[in-house]
Every structure is written in structure tokens, then in C-alpha cells.
Amino acid sequence: MAIRGDNSAAKVAPGGVLEFFAGGGLAGIGLASAGFHTLMANDIDAAKARAFRANHHDTPLHEGDVWDLTTADLPGTPDLCWASSPCQDVSLAGARGGLEARRSGAFWGFWRLMKGLADEGRAPRAIAIENVVGLLTSAGGRDFAAVCQALTEGGYRVGALEMDAGLWLPQSRPRLFIVGLKDAAGAEAAPGIFHSPRLIAAHDRLPEAVKANWAWWSLPAPPRRNLDLAALLEPDAAVDWFDANQTQDLLALSAPLHRARLEAALASGERRVAAAFRRVRTETGVKVQRLELRLDGLAGCLRTPSGGSSRQYVLVCEAGQVRARRLTGRETARLMGLAEAYRLPGSESAALKLMGDAVAVPVVRALAEGLLAPALGLRVLKGEGIAA
Ligand SMILES: C[S@@+](CC[C@H](N)C(=O)[O-])C[C@H]1O[C@@H](n2cnc3c(N)ncnc32)[C@H](O)[C@@H]1O
Questions:
Q1: Name one GO molecular function term (predicted).
Q2: Distance (Å, whole) CA 226 – CA 240
């Protein structure tokens, strides 16, 4: 549903969220599990919009460019605006044109709307911006400084957390969450567990005026994770395995150290599950395809597949044999913390793209329950939403 016309006077219950760069709506799912509710979402991509609508029947979605939205499209006065803006230009894996580049520059389309809401007396009390940790260093740190500066000028106390989905789920997925709050409740005097050395270094590079406005937001540490990759895989009989030649071709790409790890897993005689990822490495000046393995019970960070090179594989060592296959779309959804009821696109590649771009649900929930709701003075009523 595209919603046009003036929505600005709409009455909004506590915990209302505007979800920008919504993709498949995983931020909204994490926020909803902490009692927030999405008033309106926006995404430019038709496939993402289909996935969003399939899973959020009652949430108005504005499908289109964030630059085409006006404040009249945004309902009422939201408590929170969430932006998971595109990361390709700030990612360590990308060309790093930064927030001035075409795709990641969409952040400023979002920020223009935040300024517009403030001009109309409808500024959200909280803003959360999710991105890759590459934002800490892209453009020599100027991108991170620009975002923190914008929040500071907008009247928000600003701070950031680096949260790795691996604390909640069997996927290593470090992400940066920059949070602006009109009130500073929840800030610690010094860095805590969600402030990595690279985040502290980025803070040190900020302009003095922004540093003076900085808050070390704190969150409780989650309970120890008790789920590993093997526990969320499909049954062996339900998936397609590579034949012997395909398996050999794949294993031939592994570097000696990774191959040795696999041999040790085989020698253990136990069933061992490895996550594997194909990537291009430069070795002695030459680019080579490598298969990287991990046997620590975690999948590597899911990415959007491009030309098959960023597909993830599952290797199972058992009874002296290695079997290999691709990770399925449903398994990637589980690695993002989604319930089985989440409707994935019909095509595997669309499902992998959707999940590779998404934010992990329990991480959003932890941020919402541990920082956003308390800072907004909202009480999360278990199973009943939120109260002021
Ligand atoms: C990193 S993904 C966020 C995914 C989302 N958090 C989720 O959990 O699925 C960035 C999203 O921004 C969308 N996007 C990119 N440029 C945009 C623009 N100019 N206007 C609106 N959406 C845009 C992409 O289609 C993509 O879904």
C-alpha cells in the first residue's frame, strides 16, 4: 500500500515506530517483540516490499525511494525512527565511497525527513541507525562523525553500540547501532561490553563538540547462547547434497590451515558441522578463490549473494567422510532469529538476498528492551505491548 496525503495529525499510541529501509521488516519484528509497533515502513526494492507485505499485512508500506517521501507521508509523532540504511558504500567488503556515494547516501534522504519532523514539532524522541561496522572508518571516519554530528545538531544525546548477533544466535554478525535519545537515561560513564576497541577509537576521532554530547549507552549482557549452527539445520534427508566431484571441487579451494582443521574434525570420529564461505583472497599478489571454514558452531556473517561467490555452505564430517551442501534460505532465516512462520520468497536466491541484508531479530529486541523502551519511559508489558 502506498500511502499519500497528509498523515501528520494521526493519533499514535505509545511505542510507535517509523521503519526506514525496512527490507523484510526484521527490525520491526524485533521491536514488536519488545512491545513497539510499526506505524509505517519504507523500502525502495520491489522484492523486499513483497516480502514485507507477506509478513506484515497490517503495516502500511510505502514502496519507493526515501527521497520521494515527504513529512506528510509520515503519521503522527512517532516515539522511534529506525533506519537500517544501505551499507554497500561503507562496508569493508565494498568500494567504500561512503555516505556521499549513491546507495549509502540514502541515509541523508532519511535525515531530511527527521529534520522535517522536527520543524513540525513531531520529532521522534529516539532515533536508531543500524549499519555495518565499516561505517566507523569509512571516509577516514568522516561518515561516522557526520551521522553523530547530525544527531547532535538535532538535539539528541548520541552514542553507539557494536552488537554481534553471535551473542544471541549461531551467526557471527557484528553490526553498529547508533542511537540518539532526547533524554540521556541508560548512559554509562565509561565504555562497556558493547563498545569494541574500534568503536572507542572512532569515538576518539569525533569532533570535540560531538564528544561532549556523547553517551556510552549500556545494555545488560545477554544470557549465554545455548544454540549452535547444527541445531538449526534441516534434517540431512531433507536437503540436496553435492555429489563427490562437487564436494572435492569445493574442498580443493580450502587453504592448508582450513583443510587441516577439517582433517582434524574427520579424525575425531564424531559428527562435526562446519560453516564454510567462498571468498576471493589475494595471496602473493594473486587473487584466488578460497573456501574458509569455521568449526566453532557459528555461521559466518550472511551476505547478499553476488555471482555465487558469497554463498555459504554446510560441511558435515561423519564416519570418515565429508558431505557438503549449500545453506538453505530457511536456515538463513533461522540464523537471523526468525520464527518458522516467517514467509520467505519462493526463490532461494531472493530468500538469501533478503536475509543477507537483514538485521538479526534478537539483537533489535535486546536493544529495544534494554535501552530504547526504558529511555523512552515505556513499560514493556509481557505479551501485551507497551505502556507509557
Ligand atoms: C541493509 S538493508 C535493511 C534491511 C532490513 N533492516 C531488514 O531487516 O530486512 C537496506 C534496505 O534499504 C533499501 N533501500 C536502499 N536504498 C533505498 C532508498 N533510496 N530508499 C528506500 N529504501 C532504500 C534496500 O532495498 C534494502 O532493503
A1: DNA (cytosine-5-)-methyltransferase activity
A2: 27
Q: How far is 29 from 204, CA to CA, in rounded Å?
A: 34
CB distance 185 to 314 below 8 Å: no
| d(C-alpha 337, C-alpha 316), whole Å | 23
Nearest alpha carbon, ligand 1 atom 25: 45
Ligand 1 centroid from CA 61, angstroms: 13
Per-domain residue ranges for the chain?
A: 16-224+353-387, 235-327
Ligand 1 center to 11 CA (angstroms): 27
Cell representation of residue 126: 529516539
CA distance 263 to 254: 12
Nearest CA, atom 15, ligand 1: 86
In terms of DSSP H, where are the helices of 224-307?
244-251, 256-267
Helix/strand/coil percentages in the chain, nearest 5: 35, 25, 45
Closest CA to 40 of 103, 118, 124, 104: 124
Which amino acid, one-letter code, is at 63? E
Strand partners for 59:
none
Task: State whether the beta carbon of 363 lies less than 6 angstroms from ligand 1.
Answer: no
Answer CATH for 16-224+353-387 from 3.40.50.620, 3.30.430.20, 3.40.50.150, 3.40.50.720: 3.40.50.150
pLDDT digits (tens, 9 = 90+) for 273-286: 999 998 888 888 88
Q: What is the 3-state secondary structure (H, E, C) of 25-89?
A: CHHHHHHHCCCCEEEEEEECCHHHHHHHHHHCCCCCEEECCHHHCCHHHCCCCCCEEEECCCCCC
Cβ–ligand 1 contact at 169 (below 6 Å) = no
92 — pLDDT class (breaks 50, 70, 90): low
pLDDT tens profile 122-175: 999 999 999 999 999 988 898 999 999 999 999 999 999 999 999 999 999 999
